[in-house]
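Practice record 12: protein with zinc ion.
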Amino acid sequence: MSLGVVSLAAVSLVERIMNIRMWQQNGRRAPHKPLLLLYALARFQREGEGPILYSAAEKELAELIRDFGPPGAAGPYYPFDRLANDDDLWTVATGDGLPSPGDSPVRLRETGAVGRFTPSVVAELRTRPEKLLEAARALLDANFPESLHESICDAVGLDLHRTPYVLRRVTRPRDPAFRRAVLNAYAHRCAFCDYEGRLAGTTVGLDAAHIRWFAFDGPDTLDNSLCLCSLHHVLFDKGVLTLTHDHRVRVTDAFTGGTPTTRAQVHALAGRPVAPPVPALASAHLTWHHAQVFHGAA
Ligand SMILES: [Zn+2]
């Protein structure tokens, strides 16, 4: 069978990747497989379709999951083995060509297990190279807020701008009025630190942040939003900061940083009251952020 025939017969890569959306359950974050796929796509972009040796990739994958997964996420052995069960994307074999030894990290290491894209994915990425970035964008959009996309690409070594073409957005459309409404509701100031700034009259360095992420069905509504400066937006999306139900900033004990600036911009925020706009913030969205994003007990 030629590569072309495989490619035509299969469901497209992006469609299969969007099925990963279904791996979310009731808003619970399960980014292991998306992170592994992003890692593998980046590897493909840099080096082509060679196999990925589990023992060589384990440390980097563990760091990815630790940095961008929910608190208490399982290790890299889990997606490395389990991704092979999903829809013809990924395949795992031991160094001797036997089937995957399962999701035991010891067995994956000892048997010299390697993972790789299935032949149909390789065929599609070879014949239509633009699909690689489309797939990566779909994974990022479906699983992470935009504030983290660049850091994730840096971490996996993916160049999203290598091919100049317009990437198709595959999630529900964003409401362009959302940003304006949120900034107005918070009087163009960071809800956490009171930063405000304008460049030639236009607000700069402030974002409309979702509490429950857009990628996890967080609505574009004021009760799910905070106006945050760029620093606090990233720290909020990475789970360094959250907001308690009585609207006070909480800083995770897991965060460290010793300069006076860090203390002033992060540690000093602990307990600081935030005045939300009308209507008040929805406690269901805050609960989601506490459970799925924040590193520590809120
Ligand atoms: Zn701020």
